[in-house]
Request: fold
Amino acid sequence: GIQVEQSPPDLILQEGANSTLRCNFSDSVNNLQWFHQNPWGQLINLFYIPSGTKQNGRLSATTVATERYSLLYISSSQTTDSGVYFCAAMERYSTLTFGKGTMLLVSP
Amino acid sequence: DTGVSQNPRHKITKRGQNVTFRCDPISEHNRLYWYRQTLGQGPEFLTYFQNEAQLEKSRLLSDRFSAERPKGSFSTLEIQRTEQGDSAMYLCASSLAGLYNEQFFGPGTRLTVL
Reply:
């Protein structure tokens, strides 16, 4: 099955800083999603982005499907951005394979 | 518009007991998925349904686990003879089948087996 790797595993930022999270996947995908997991365990949908670029406020994402990677950009980070960010890929039209996540801590 | 809901949110049980979790998907979604997440890991796929048909099961789903979606709406996941290794967060997600198949997750059921 498809392999999904995320980097960095941990990231500590000062409030206001920008960051880039990376997701590499081993095969072509039909679906790629980014999630933010809050401290209570809820997965919040950030982007559905099998290819191209999308923006939502301070967050944006780019997937280059031909090179098998996706990037999540967080600008002007806030303490509420803290948590775990997951990338998940779908190689067939069925189930998601998740990476191990990037743990982000934004300090005031 | 309600999202995916799961009950209970927390369950503490003793080893050897049976437990059952429920998931109610987003109403127009015909696909329903179960995932399991252990500490420090990403969620791992267990099984999924399209309408009432169970289309795929992971090797993680031992014979102590059974899932149903009898009328193509809500689903239940039962674990028989629980073991301490079953302690995890159990997540349910739903989506529409097709080319655009974004999955939306419920809040999860956190299981602790003593």
About this structure: The mean pLDDT of chain A is 95. Chain A is about 0% helix and 55% strand. The two ends of chain A are 41 Å apart (CA to CA). The longest strand of chain A covers residues 83-90.
